[in-house]
Specification:
- The chain contains two helices and four strands.
- It is of the alpha+beta class and 101 residues long.
- Strands 1-4-3-2 form a four-stranded mixed β-sheet.
- The chain is elongated and about 70 Å long.
Length: 101
């Protein structure tokens, strides 16, 4: 017996929502996804360059920077949005100074 069109659509919508949730959970675990796992950079000047090379975990699109925030002790929070799907997130960076010993 074939399922009704509405039932099929609801099943597909639930699967798509679950996929988005799963991708967001994974994005929080990679470097930069949370304050506990920041991306280490040598200066604030390279943060936007690094963001330009990072794909959106939802659609593989590019990010655009919305705002930079200083979060203390060399930490930066950068609010970004995907240019393609519009997903917003905060990426975390830690500025690590490489000075000679």
């Amino acid at each position: 017996m074939a399922k009704r069109e509405r039932t099929e659509r609801r099943i597909e919508e639930r699967a798509a929502k679950k996929l988005v949730r799963d991708r967001e959970k994974l994005a929080a675990l990679v470097p930069g996804g949370s304050q506990e796992h920041p991306i280490e950079v040598s200066s604030a000047a390279v943060i936007e360059v690094r963001i330009g090379s990072m794909p959106c975990p939802q659609c593989e699109g590019e990010y655009r920077v919305i705002d930079h925030r200083f979060e203390g002790a060399g930490h930066r929070a950068v609010d970004v949005a995907c240019r393609l799907c519009g997903t917003k997130r905060t990426l975390w960076f830690r500025i690590v100074v490489d000075e000679p010993n």
